Fold these 4 entries.
Entry 1:
Amino acid sequence: MLKVTKFGGSSMADAGQYQKVRDILMADKERRVVVVSAAGKRHSKDHKITDLLYLCHAHVQYGVSCDSVYDMITSRYLEIRDELGLKLDLESEFTELKKRLDAKQVSQDEMASRGEYFSAKLMAAFLGFQFVDAAEWVFFNIDGTVDKKKSYAALKEQMTGEGIVTPGFYGVMPNGTIRTFSRGGSDITGALAAAALDADVYENWTDVSGILMADPRIVDDPQAIAEVTYDELRELSYSGAQVLHEDAIFPVREKNIPLNIRNTNDPQAPGTMIRESFEEDSDQLLTLGNFLRYHHMDARSLYAKYNFSRLCVEACVREAYSEPIEETMTKAFSRLVAIDSRRWIQFLLDILPRLDDVDFTKLSHMEQQMLNMFYTTVWQETIEDFDADAVWERFYTLCDSPVMLQELIELLRY
Ligand code: ASP
């Protein structure tokens, strides 16, 4: 068994976080490959090292001294080293880099990459693992894509029986210069390492306990979703679910490697497991209610971006259909999910299943108004005349679409 782990910026922010990382690795001997980010923020007012590196480079480009920013960067790493009691000579590398930077010999990408580079150097020394530079195994093609064949072979060759630590976020161009991925790209390096080594799992350690069912800025302490398929992950990029760089999915998915989002600050939490499919058959019907319960989600987070029927069609578990009502309803679902009047919901649940034989003359004024509200929400027009054919045609099309009607009723029930 081999587990490839990737630790994000907050997991690398200070010496205390390094210790947590070591505990996590020591708790499981299969965690032998470690990909690291640059040091992130220690608190909300702090700076990410990567941001400071870009800033430093910009100073030099404009002919402004970057000494104080450079100092902030180097002192963060020296502080971590000293607090961990490591005997690693970083000073000479810092001096050398600064000399080349001032002489405008360091590209923006190379400068940005140094955050991950120094993180990996320190982490390797702390763990007693071997340091493998990303420039020795992440090979870019001239067009900026990764040469996977060459990169995978190179990492396999570097992989000893013992553990290795490698920096995320960058690699090397065919001409030998450093190139970075886009921001947050250490996730991609981790996925490439997992794919290269045919890992059993790719653990992505961050500061949340997985993909949350709601945005923590809005909902207090939301639960993490235990299991998600790759398709659902792509589709359910609802509020705040951006825990992962989207390009990190492909390399592991291609090799059928499960991806586990974990929390460095809560290592006991199982996090979110993402895979191609979950085999065990629950014997439950695929209904909206069951789906939401299974994923510990609520209807609002699903309908904010998507609708259940379309999700089922795209996941190939329900047949495609192309009734014109689908488009109308799909748009209306996100509006309908916001209804919170008990009375209105009760009325709709009562009338929708028997819409084709309702006698409208018998509806009270209040009931007519509630039906009118429903009509307006779905078709974005008000009912001027309850006898008009156009109104009835629309209601009948809805009745004739069992899939849509069923989903609508389920949504209202939920
Ligand atoms: N340090 C880089 C960034 O902030 C890459 C990463 O952390 O994944 O974007």
Entry 2:
Amino acid sequence: MSTIPANEPTFRESVDLMFNRAVALMDLPPGLEEKIRVCNATYTVRFGVRLRGQITTFTGYRSVHSEHMEPVKGGIRFAPSVHQDEVEALAALMTYKCALVEAPFGGSKGGLRIDPRDYDEYELEQITRRFAYELAKRDMIHPAQNVPAPDMGTGEREMAWIADQYARMNTTDINARACVTGKPLNAGGISGRVEATGRGVQYALREFFRHPEDVKVAKLTGKLDGKRVIVQGLGNVGYHAAKFLRDEDGCTIVGIIERDGALHDESGIDVDAVYAWILKHGGVSGYPDAAHTAEGATVLEAECDILIPAALEGVINLTNADRIKAPLIIEAANGPITAGADDVLREKGTVVIPDMYANAGGVTVSYFEWVKNLSHIRFGRMQRRQEEARHQLVIDELQRLDEVLGDQWSMTPNFKDKYLRGADELELVRSGLDDTMRIAYQSMREVWHDREDVHDLRTAAYIVSISKVAASYRAKGL
Ligand code: GLU
């Protein structure tokens, strides 16, 4: 089941159309443009697993879009709607995403056509391990060649099974843990990976609101504080983005759209309470503290300052684009706006912070995890206490001043504790992510503002990333 209307281009065609818009403004050598656009290979596997006394056949894909850098990187999705076109579109977006945020990977994506809710944990483990086996034996899971990660329908648990399966098949590979990212901490994961994509959305918005000229283009004013937000999809990405924006940036979450309808409340919705409700009841229906409507689409079109589509592709399409009121949309999901809808929104003056940038927090922290696995040491392990010891020297001096100056000057309460503490892994990960999101935004906005023929951030993002991929190919002599 796809959310993209049948009369609109497919997801992959949409990505290609957006790509073409950007390359039309670039001066790429003939042939290179096509080399970058096309998907290098898609592997389809059909495998059987004996479940409940009979053999069930599953279909899975792993698509490699571009190997201008290796390993190639991208998540594995478990959903009944998975198909080749979708996996290829998502693999292409991974290429552009990694290039934009300077994660040294090519683009890939995998998918298994399955509804995970139909199986218990033991069965899912059998299925995941078998899929991992099929991919690993063809080097489509490999620390140096192809490194999967979580996506829709998968998480830490599935990544731990994949890592273990790879390790069983490669018993002497000292870097085996780097074959997949998004693992639990006790199986070689990194602090902050689960929250990473949502955190990246928050950092992206913070950076956007640091530029008053950009805020003005979106017909908004002031800071992120106090903005009214609607989020579509309260999965891992939507939940973390909404939670951080509400708890740390003073945003009000006025709408939450889920599979079974939407919640709407101008005075604000308690994201944690709704998340807990969804985990328990499977949807938002019956949630007592906000008005519920079965027509989720109406809330997508409701008044707000920022709309965050964080679920499926194609939810904003030609059937609803002209009714979307949000002046600023940040694409936390991959491909939530079709190429046709993108044209409508651009005409209307809606500012869209594009997926390849907005949701790059996940792969950015995956990059940190991969580096951690290859270096076999936790970030901060060598420096933390040394940093604290140096801070202690400063504190000792300030303490002396405090004693001498008596009532004229004293240290701010809490300063000592805050300053003394060296950064742990989570803080370093967040700092690396924040830096990445700021720099990538600045590279996009420079193209957006400096070039008269570029009118939107998406085209700017494509131009930045395609230039980087082209430079890699050129360096390889292509
Ligand atoms: N599936 C995520 C994405 O679409 C993460 C990919 C990764 O970490 O490799 O970006």
Entry 3:
Amino acid sequence: MQKILTKSEILDYSKKGIRQIPMEEIPLMTDLAREELNRLGMEIVLTDRGTASAPIPAVPAPAQAAPAAVPGSTGGGYGGAAVYEGGLGKPLFKEVIRSVRKLVGTFIGTPHPVMTEYVGHLGFDFVCIDSEHNAIHLETLQKMLQSLSHTPTYGMVRIPTLSYEMVTGALDIGADALLIPQIRTVEDIVRLKSYSQYPPVGRRGVGPSRLWEYGDSIGKLGEAGDINRTTNIVIQLETVSAVENIDGILEESAGFVDMFFIGPGDLSMDMGIFGQFSNPKLVDTIMYLREKTNAAGKRLGIFAGNFQAAKSWFDKGFDMVIINSELALLGTAVSQEMPGLRAAIGEKQ
Ligand code: 3PY
Ligand code: MG
């Protein structure tokens, strides 16, 4: 088989002071390797057993393979080399999630890119498109994620089921993070890991999807060291089983999950105290999960019904809050103002 010369091997030669790399035949090179060879002014020299004696300069990368100023502006397929920054042009959301920044988001339930784009301009760090509780499927999800490209806001997606199709599908269309609901067992995490991580960690398939700028930046995968470094998974803790299995869940999630997220609605439902958000049993359970995730060095988010509740969760040390949904926020604004207007025009309440 033809030898493949990688960027890291070129760097190794360069570190050893070798500028002419001896090879028995012209190797296969990725665009990144070729760029590196060019950048360092190095060349490949065929040895005696090769067919040429003169140095072979680095094959110039095709014009479209130069780093693209505008992501996605190059040719598509597997071969291009646009610069992948993550988040399709924004700093990688996984890095933001791992930082100390407190994150504010809201759910999106309207299955339309215009609403997503509008909310993307309102000052949230991220929106979480909720396809667990709304009829939002992959085709629509992709358009909604695309609509965020011209906003400073990241697009998280809450998938409806823990399936290969949904995990890989939502990641491939460019979700900056996945929120995985209804996690109960260590076995769930094992499945999640296998669906979301590229081999050898998992069994996620690789393809020229929107995530990799339709193939232009997919070349980075082979050179990246940790090829799963961009995959950003947030796990929901919202069942009694998850509370019981929390040690195993945290252990199995090590290395691929940075943020956990509590769903107080489902947790209270599962505990038989639905909606009793100040019930000490629920509050104690939430704070127990806070201690456990904290001890494991993980960040923790929670759902809040409004901005005031969000502030109190941040005061309690939470790292991320999803404040209700765009529809609920609209409803609140209208219900606060409408009675006053009705009264002002002489209508009884
Ligand atoms: C819950 O409260 O159950 C949630 O899933 C909120 O996101
Ligand atoms: Mg829930």
Entry 4:
Amino acid sequence: MTEREVTENPFDNSSPFDALERSRRESFLRSFSATSVPMMSPVLAVYIWMFVSSPSWQIALVCVLTVLMIGANYMASWFARRQKAVLGSYIFLFSTLFIIGIDAVMIEGLTAVLPLSYAVIVIMAGMLLGSSGSIVIATASAFLWVLAQIVSERCLLPSVTISSTLLMAIIAVITIMGFFFTAYLNHLATKDLQGALDNATYDLVQANRKLGEANRLKSQFLARTSHELRTPLNAIIGYTDLTLRRVYGSLTAMQEDGLKRVLGNAKRLQSLINDILDLSKIEAGEMELIASPFNVKALVDAVDVAVGEAARKKGLEFSVSLAPDMPEKLIGDEIRTAQVLLNIADNAVKFTVDGQVDILIGLVDDEHWHMEVRDTGRGIAEENYERIFDEFRQLSTPGGTRTAGSGLGLSVARHLVHKMGGEIRIDSEIGRGSTFDVILPLWVAEKAHTQL
Ligand code: ADP
């Protein structure tokens, strides 16, 4: 296939199919019109010869109608070039149906080839107008065929009689032409469809490649800029913290209040940048997990300090419990495991107004352990179980407001859990609370030293 320039993403438009189909039909109509002279010329030559050898008004009429049919075919092609292919197709199909029908009635015995000719026209109608058009033409064909039978059987129109040898010759020519024309239609439809399919596949592959490249560049850009942002931000947080600790001298109450706000907002920004950095690393396939033995109790303490304080400040009951049969030391990426648990526990506190948040760490079976976070918060509707893991997705609150956060926490958490070979399950009821259960493969430090 030759290299074609993909000027636009085919998915930007509603569907390229309609335009593709329209242009296919126009090109069919032009091809059919172009074949009318080579197809009709031999038949017209026979009719003219018949008229010359024994003149009759019937043969004269047949000759005139055949010339008119060639004219109608050209008129159809003219319409096709002016984007009026449907009108052109109906002119082409109906004129052909009528003229062939009249021709068959005018010459005695010629109605024998009418079914074959009409069948070819119905196939052409399908190619030009689709299935609904072919049904219209099939109905018209059936009606005209019955009419032709009645007219010729009852001798309602005086038909001309020609010698049986000549009749046989005409029937043979029309029949053989019908066979070859059907083969030509088949070739036309297959070739055209294959071409359209080739082009569509090519566009799809190109668009997909460009999307992949754009996504890779986006992740690379995010990873780099996030890194550049983190360095000055760490300095802001560090120096603000030192100032608040009075390292640089005493502070007035107003100064302290202002600096606390600076610190709070800088930390929020830092967590957002960290999430973006993590996500871009994950998308760029650069997120590496480092497996080493870690103490499960340290995980419990970390979450108790980081989230417990916020929960208690809100007046929530908060508990973290470790199942008695839980091994003391596991192998895994301690920092990333803690990050998952903190993200989920942080949400539990954030979305619970009163009641409690409980965290349970324990075994599921011989090969899995889990971290379960239960809250008595606002709950999540079942249709949103999947959506909350989308990047930057936040569910609006009943009042229509949005809570603080980036909408990245769960997305990052799920990516990490999947990378660790685990899964996150949700069970929730609106107004009653939610349970997030993180299930991870169990690698006990004393037993195994499997690498992630
Ligand atoms: P963020 O918390 O920064 O908004 P997340 O990705 O952590 O982003 O969560 C996405 C959304 O999922 C939240 O905005 C919230 O609407 C919903 N959500 C997450 N955890 C809970 C929960 N425990 N209870 C109710 N809603 C939750």
